[in-house]
TrEMBL record:
Residue span(s) of domain Formyl transferase N-terminal: 10-213
Pathway(s) served: Purine metabolism; IMP biosynthesis via de novo pathway; N(2)-formyl-N(1)-(5-phospho-D-ribosyl)glycinamide from N(1)-(5-phospho-D-ribosyl)glycinamide (10-formyl THF route): step 1/1
GO cellular component: cytoplasm
UniProt organism field: Cudoniella acicularis
One Pfam family of this chain: Formyl_trans_N
Keyword check for Lyase: no
InterPro entries assigned: Formyl_transf_N (IPR002376), Formyl_transf_N_sf (IPR036477), GART (IPR004607)
Protein name: phosphoribosylglycinamide formyltransferase 1
Keywords from the UniProt entry: Purine biosynthesis, Transferase
């Protein structure tokens, strides 16, 4: 048995789609591969996300919170100013929703296929609450930021301009995929077609998200009792 000071890191996962990275975390915790970690809940912004099914099967509570369904944006809105304002309001409300949790407040937020770019309206209050936010991205640092990263790398392979890509786990900041890397893995192109490359990349994503979560969760657990001015062991 572990004492209160060694209780597992409380993790909130945010996912928008199929949830395979979410499942990798669930499996790693259940098999003991990912220690000192406990997923307390899932948040999704898409009602039909398969991640919800995964949460139900694992007995993990989930919450659906969407900018249109919850009244922050009008469906089909095209006005850029209204879109920006709506997203800011949504981000602020989502942060408040997380911070107002009555039972267990998360210590670590993992974006596992979360299809929404956060603004400072979300990131700043979460940072003030000393919660860490990490993301997994299928590219190396400062290469292919944003959407369609694997497809863009594949085009470079086919054109003969590149022979490798990679995956990184990184902290989330208000610049897309530009936060400090936690772990990276280089992946050489083996001449396969796009779908085979995607499948191989996703396999390595599942490995990396577990390893990065283990690293950060351990740091959080060890840091709970650290006093201001203490220097962590190298």
């Amino acid at each position: 048995m572990t004492g209160p000071e060694e209780s597992p890191c409380r993790i909130l996962v945010m996912a928008s789609g199929f949830g395979s990275n979410f499942q990798a975390l669930i499996d790693a915790i259940s098999t003991g591969q990912l220690r000192n970690s406990h997923i307390i809940s899932l948040i999704t912004n898409r009602r039909n996300a398969h991640a919800i099914v995964r949460a139900d099967e694992a007995g993990i509570p989930w919450d659906y919170f969407n900018p249109i369904s919850n009244g922050f944006l009008r469906k089909g809105e095209t006005d850029e100013q209204k879109l920006a304002e709506g997203r800011q309001k949504y981000d602020a409300a989502l942060a408040a929703r997380i911070l107002s949790t009555d039972k267990e407040r998360p210590e670590l937020i993992i974006l596992a296929g979360w299809m929404h770019v956060f603004s400072g309206a979300f990131l700043e209050p979460i940072e003030r609450a000393r919660m860490r936010i990490i993301n997994i991205h299928p590219a190396l640092p400062r290469e292919f930021d944003g959407a369609m990263a694997i497809e863009r790398a594949f085009e470079e392979f086919k054109a003969g301009r590149l022979t490798r890509t990679g995956i990184m786990a990184h902290y989330v900041i208000d610049e897309v995929d530009r936060g400090a890397p936690i772990m990276i893995k280089e992946i050489e192109w083996e001449g396969e077609e796009l779908e085979e490359l995607k499948e191989r990349m996703h396999f390595h994503e599942h490995e990396l998200i577990v390893k990065a979560t283990a690293k950060v969760a351990q740091e959080i657990v060890e840091g709970r009792e650290r006093k201001p001015g203490d220097v962590p062991n190298p």
